[in-house]
Design a protein that fits this description.
binds zinc ion; about 15% helix; 9 strands; 3-stranded antiparallel sheet; alpha+beta; Metal Binding Protein, Guanine Nucleotide Exchange Factor, Chain A; globular
């Protein structure tokens, strides 16, 4: 049998990241570098034009254009770039902004940076696994966090708890 380990490592860096909701060998990644990495060309070919614009070029979809804005079914929201779990439906609320909004992300699923574009200081939100831009977070959300994660629907895929190919919950994670 071919060495399974060798096969896994090679696959992870090329196609598996785009296909499987799995955690990539983070221990191999240098500090500050995202576990899932692709070249610009690879991102371009694996994402739709809209997804590429938002995730890789920090774009923003037009308000009220995402079907996920009005989605309130029970389920999970995954990164459209690497399929990592980002948000669950029980943290979603109607912000009436035209973008899917949540008061809390899944633990360690997202990271933030300070965004000073457009003469504003905002907190940018990105996927902690692939670095894809997701949206911004504002301190005017509802209880219990008071945070409003204003997300681009095109940057996420929704997996319905009742109908989708949702994987079994895996809460295992490195120490917090
Ligand atoms: Zn991602």
């Amino acid at each position: 049998m071919v060495s399974r380990r060798t096969f896994s490592v090679a696959t992870v860096t090329t196609v598996a990241a785009a296909l499987l909701p799995q955690r990539v060998a983070a221990s191999d990644a240098p500090k500050g570098v995202f576990p899932v990495q692709k070249s610009d060309e690879e991102w371009k070919s694996s994402l739709t034009k809209e997804q590429y614009y938002v995730l890789r070029q920090h774009g923003t979809e037009r308000a009220f254009t995402s079907p996920l804005d009005k989605t309130y079914a029970e389920g999970e929201y995954h990164c459209a770039g690497c399929n990592s779990l980002l948000f669950t439906s029980d943290t979603k609320f109607d912000s009436r902004t035209g973008w899917p909004s949540f008061f809390k992300p899944v633990e360690k699923a997202v990271g933030t940076t300070t965004d000073r574009s457009f003469f504003m200081t905002r907190t940018e939100v990105h996927c902690a696994t692939c670095g894809g831009h997701l949206g911004h977070v504002f301190p005017d959300g509802p209880p219990p966090t008071g945070q409003r994660y204003c997300m681009n629907g095109v940057a996420m895929t929704f997996v319905s708890k009742t109908g989708g190919p949702s994987a079994a919950p895996d809460k295992s994670d490195s120490k917090s």
